[in-house]
Amino acid sequence: MQMIEIEQLPGSVIPPPIQVGEATISEEAIAREMQYHPADNAGSAQLKAVRALVVRELLRQRAAELGLDVTGEEETDLVIATLLEEELDVPEPSDDDCRRFYAAAPTRFSEPGRVRVRHVLLAAAPDDAEARDAQYRLGQELIEALTAAPGRFTEFAQRHSACPSRDEGGELGWLAPGQTVAELDRALQHLPEGLHERPLASRYGWHVVVIDERREGHALPFERVAERVRHTLREQATRRVLRHYLLALESRTGVDGIALDDESDSSLMQ
């Protein structure tokens, strides 16, 4: 049996057909499935699609082996869910397990820091050097004017900002990490309170930014996050059990054209 190593696949193309037991996964089926698996390139999308189809076919065949009806598309999904509930033995995490996990990674269950932000977005495309230069100079002028007259921020936001927040005087409200565009988000985590001394760049242009207030993150007591901890451990245990189950089905059924790996359970977990 010739297996294609997973490491060779991103950016490349998997030569169909893929064989799962006596069933063939065709090129057409893979092409249809790819739309549900966005990726950076066609090879990665194809790989995700093939994994999902192989996993589904392994489970369909196991359900049929047990005498379950897998003839209809929607019915098959329900049957597979029932199959997994019956065949997967997922251990329930104990209170001690949860407390140990929490103690080992307390920041994972912390209240994140937040900043209350106003901004003026001076729009300019990343590849428009002339516009970016002009908007940067405008940003410097606005910052100079605001240094002398902070009360004009709402006026400047309404007049110049390309962000819908201009109607609120540039108010973005309280932002936690990950709630705005990545390049601006990184900067906001480190800025002191007040008007920043220069425009900040993003893919959308330049931002004149004021940090009105900052609240630092803090650890939450175990009692506040016990259910989150338990859910996390239960999900990890489910992934492990499901992975072993799928690999056992792969070994018993036989799969030609691809080998399942540690990410092959992702579509089912989602």
TrEMBL record:
It holds the Pfam family Rotamase. It comes from the Bacteria. One of its GO terms (molecular function) is isomerase activity. SUPFAM superfamilies: FKBP-like, Triger factor/SurA peptide-binding domain-like. The keyword Cytoplasm does not apply. PROSITE patterns: PPIC_PPIASE_2. It catalyses: [protein]-peptidylproline (omega=180) = [protein]-peptidylproline (omega=0). Gene3D superfamilies: 3.10.50.40. Its EC number is 5.2.1.8. Residues 112-213 form the PpiC domain. The keyword Transmembrane does not apply. Keywords: Isomerase, Rotamase. Belongs to the PpiC/parvulin rotamase family. This is peptidylprolyl isomerase.
